[in-house]
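Entry:
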Amino acid sequence: MLDHIDYSERAPVTLDPNTAHPCLILSDDLTSLHYSRQALSYPDNPERFHMSAEVVGMTTLGAGSHHWVVETESNQDWLLGVATFAVPRNREVSARPENGFWTLCFRDGEFLAMTSPPVPLTLSKNPKQIKVELDYNKGMVSFYDAADDTLIYTFSHTFKEYLTNLIL
């Protein structure tokens, strides 16, 4: 689980507090978060993730290219990428393309592209920052080591819905 996350791009990604799982503490400026083992008392609303500690960005990602950088250096468990707005929030679901997720994961010291089944990835080093790049028109979501722009993985899909940033 991400203990702390920071986003950066020309304009930082703003996290949507109405979607944040109760164990996620968002910063005042809504650009970073911390994981808490104790659930907070957030208002119950239909947008909120209840089954897994996720939050989405407030930005609608559609036509064109979008990119952002996520700091992962001090985190030993994370998942990040993009998701459709319609992803389930009140039940467990695998973060895979058939469920509206295009994500990269780091768990138990292993990098995975969350396909069906997940694809183990071999990286020469542990990236401190991951750049996520979405080319909506070309149907590509790519993940890079932000330090040297080394490609980690690319998903290809014909998107038919708007997307948003996703982290776990």
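The radius of gyration is 15 Å.
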